[in-house]
Amino acid sequence: MLNKTGRNAVRKGWKFFVLSLGVAFAFVSCDNEHCDDSMYCPMEISFYSQMDTSEKIAPPLLLMKGIGSDSIMNFSGKQQIYFPLNPNKETSQFVFLMEPYSENIKYVTVKTDTLRSEDEILSIKYYLNDEEIFIKNKIGKAYMFSNDTICLFQDGNFYKPLLDTLNITSDLCHHFLSSECGYLTTFSLKKLKFSQGGVGFILIKNNSVTNKYNERHVNIYLENY
Amino acid sequence: MLVLFLPCFSLSAEENKDEDKKAEKKFFYGVYVDYDLGDLLMSAINSQRFGTNASIEVDLMHLLYPAFEFGYEEYDSAPDYCYNNTSGNEQTQGVKNDIKGIYYKLGVNINLLKKDYSQKLTPYGFLGFRYAVAPHYSYDIAGFALNSSYWPIDDSNGSDRIGWQSGNSKAHWMEFIAGVSTPIYKGFCMGAELRFKQFLSIRDVKGENDLYLITPSYAPGYGDKEDGKWGFRYTISYFFH
Predict the structure, then answer these.
(1) Of B47, B92, B178, B195, which shows the fewest CB atoms inside 10 Å?
(2) Which among B80, B151, B215 has the least Cβ separation from residue A177?
């Protein structure tokens, strides 16, 4: 069926076939097995003073803790903050801890018992209402004690911080991207409200929280700043 | 890579130049029916995958080869990965991203070698393209957890795992091909093709009160869009004339 030139071509074709089989398997082994998409959809808040809404301000003390999470975020001195909403729940709750307004400072009597050895402090015991408490965590001037009391410490005095809970209600969308990335959760903000209303008022600028870079979502106009 | 080898075929074909002049060029030489051995081989070595495809090519003037391909593929890509809702590097149990469906490809190959019009069956080296569609393939996705480094996952009762999502989607893509085919015995030929693929569209599917949006990352006949744009076929074919 084939003449001499045809048979030559077949021989060359076989060589090519074996060689290209190796090349193809090299391609097969080069799977890209990591997620290339940004999976972080942070919500943004910018802070303004109610006195002057033209310039952003930076609260000198701002700690936030998601209710349900053990991690405390320290946003002290930031004009603009980014933080993750809970992808599992329509309502994310965050405890806001801030410096109280000067007229609202309430001092707390925490007695201390310091054990010294010459110039060295060996240990300090803390007592609240005659009950011994331990420091669980300390961030800046904020002390978190073992009985869940949080106090701020300045100039030798403990005093109560401004505490409020920010409730963020949103519609969720779980977007399946790939086996590598899994689901990306985006949020559509519906309602933001402080439980006690002592921090400031809230304005939603953009209700869509996605993984796009540099989105702006919410302004909070702080009282007494 | 394939193009580098095309001169091998050209040289041998050139030797036949005098005979070419004498041979009468025909419009229709025959029909190739091929089967992709590469797909079969990949199915054999990868237990998560099964695929099979075949094509029909018509030899017109030893120059143009209109082609129609069709195939079926199913693949669960989830076991390839370790998810951070497990400890260590063990595969997460109960996670699946399973795609099943048929696909079609339509296009043409252009033979770049010297033509030997005296032979009905000749080696040919070609460039070509395909328009491909997977018109209605199914997906089943289950067991993926929502990832957040800040919010802990309560995996004790699976409550943070997304429930079973299933449905159908549709994908279109283009493929550009370089390949060769050569006779090996009587009417049987072997061929190899390297393919560059580019998605044109893949349909997102909304589910359950718009709470879910599924973008299948895998289309039958294309593969995983995250795994790159190259593909290959190794074919055995029979030439009917």
Answers:
(1) B47
(2) B215
